[in-house]
Every structure is written in structure tokens, then in C-alpha cells.
């Protein structure tokens, strides 16, 4: 069902975003990735509207959406097309409340609070390293959220933590993957200097969206010698 694609796209965005992960930031992130990585134009406002419609739908009702937009979102989710998505994600049983439990934000929030209180009651250590900081201007390190630091502390995100590193590429760097997609992204530092990163998303200091590498950028700034 098309609505499942939208829900999973927003779930993936929540895992990839550093810092705030509200509906608007997630929709804008998906839009940025679609444009930056795949050159597909699908605005954040349009994505928010589709998501709002999904939340309001009956469990057995699907959403009306342009097929080309579904194709874009399937690519964002690393699927070849919608048929590939269905093969890997067969529709839930109509009697299942899985879909409802994932989109009913009020119930989810209440449930999260109850779980947090129960964990605290049974003495679990909630002060583990559930945050991370950008260290040495080249990688993230995990820290306890309450630790005082001169560096900006943000919630721990496994995808970003494992993949986002700053590098100094030369002409021998593998700029593109075998399928032709980008394998390097760039952005400017606070001082306006060009910096290169191993994963797409937001610059860890300026919070600006990183741009995918192009042959022009390679020739002008990396292999110019």
C-alpha cells in the first residue's frame, strides 16, 4: 500500500536527522536527499501534506498519490521500484493494528513516557551514552547526555555515527559507487572553507545540507594540480 511507503520514508528520515526530528524537519530532509542524491523534485510541504493524509486514513484505506512520487520514495528507501518494496514489505493483515500504532503520535508519546517511568523505577541506568558530539572536526563520539561539554551535544544516531566522517580526499579517492551514485559530499565550514564528508545529510557544525560531489567539484578543488 502506498501509505506504507510514506510511513517508512518518514521513519528512515527520523534515523538520519541530527537534532530535531519533527514532521517538518523530516519532510524537508527527505526532499533534500531526493534532490541532492537522485535529482528528484518533491517538496517538503507536499510530503507533509501526504503524511497528514496518511495519519487521518482508516487502516484499510490507501492514499491517492502520484505514481512518480512513490517511485522517488522507493528509491529513497533503497528499493528499485514499488514492486520491489512490496516484495520486501508485504502488506500487513487488515486486522493488524501495526499501522495505527505507528502513526498515532499521541498514544506513542504516552506509551514512551510510561515505559521511561517503568525503566527508571526498576533501577536501569538511563544515563548511558545516548548523545554524541563532533570531535576533532572529523568524527562523532558518544557521550552521556548530561555531560558538560564545550562541543554541541546531540542525540545519538547510529546511522550518522557509523557513517558520517570528514575526510581530505585526493585524486585517488573513490568519488562514486559502482552504480554511479555519489560516495562523497561537501559543505562549507563556519569560516567558509570547503569540507568533504563520507555521508549525506547535514553539516555537523553549521547544520546546512551537504551537497553531493560532482565532477566539476573534483576537477576544480581536489584534482586541480
Characterise the protein shown here:
By secondary structure, the protein is α+β, with helices and mostly antiparallel strands. It folds into two domains: 2-119, no CATH class; 131-222, no CATH class. Helices cover 44% and strands 11% of the residues. The protein has nine helices and seven strands. It has helices at residues 2-16, 23-38, 44-56, 67-76, 82-88, 98-103, 105-121, 158-163, 215-222; strands at 131-135, 139-143, 153-155, 166-167, 185-188, 194-197, 211-212. It has a four-stranded antiparallel beta sheet, with no helix packed on it. The chain has a three-stranded antiparallel beta sheet with strand order 2-1-3. A hairpin with a 3-residue loop joins strand 1 (131-135) and strand 2. Helix 1 (2-16) crosses helix 3 (44-56) and helix 1 (2-16) packs parallel to helix 4. The longest helix is centred in the middle third of the chain and has 17 residues, at 105-121. The chain starts with a helix and ends with a helix. Mean pLDDT is 83; it is low at 94-101.
Please outline the helices and strands.
Blueprint: H1 2-16, H2 23-38, H3 44-56, H4 67-76, H5 82-88, H6 98-103, H7 105-121, E1 131-135, E2 139-143, E3 153-155, H8 158-163, E4 166-167, E5 185-188, E6 194-197, E7 211-212, H9 215-222
Antiparallel strand pairs: 1-2, 1-3, 4-6, 5-6, 5-7
Helix pairs in contact: 1-2, 1-3, 1-4, 2-3, 2-4
Amino acid at each position: 500500500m502506498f501509505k506504507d511507503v510514506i510511513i517508512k520514508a518518514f521513519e528512515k528520515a527520523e534515523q538520519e536527522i541530527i537534532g530535531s526530528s519533527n514532521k517538518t524537519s523530516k519532510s524537508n530532509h527527505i526532499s533534500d536527499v531526493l534532490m541532492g542524491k537522485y535529482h528528484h523534485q518533491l517538496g517538503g510541504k507536499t510530503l507533509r501534506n501526504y503524511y497528514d493524509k496518511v495519519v487521518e486514513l482508516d487502516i484499510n484505506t490507501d492514499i491517492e498519490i502520484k505514481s512518480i512520487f512513490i517511485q522517488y520514495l522507493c528509491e529513497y528507501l533503497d528499493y528499485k521500484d514499488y514492486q520491489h518494496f512490496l516484495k520486501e514489505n508485504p502488506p500487513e493483515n487488515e486486522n493488524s493494528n501495526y499501522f495505527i500504532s505507528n502513526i498515532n503520535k499521541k498514544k506513542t508519546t504516552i506509551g514512551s513516557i510510561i515505559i521511561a517511568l517503568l525503566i527508571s523505577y526498576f533501577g536501569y541506568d538511563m544515563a548511558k551514552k545516548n548523545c554524541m558530539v563532533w570531535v576533532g572536526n572529523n568524527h562523532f563520539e558518544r557521550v552521556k547526555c548530561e555531560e558538560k561539554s564545550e562541543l554541541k551535544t546531540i542525540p545519538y544516531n547510529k546511522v550518522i555515527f557509523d557513517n558520517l566522517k570528514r575526510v581530505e580526499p585526493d585524486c585517488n579517492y573513490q568519488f562514486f559507487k559502482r552504480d554511479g551514485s555519489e560516495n562523497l559530499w561537501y559543505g562549507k565550514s563556519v569560516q567558509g572553507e570547503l569540507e568533504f564528508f563520507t555521508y549525506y545529510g547535514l553539516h555537523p557544525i553549521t547544520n546546512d545540507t551537504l551537497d553531493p560531489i560532482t565532477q566539476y567539484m573534483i576537477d576544480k578543488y581536489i584534482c586541480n594540480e
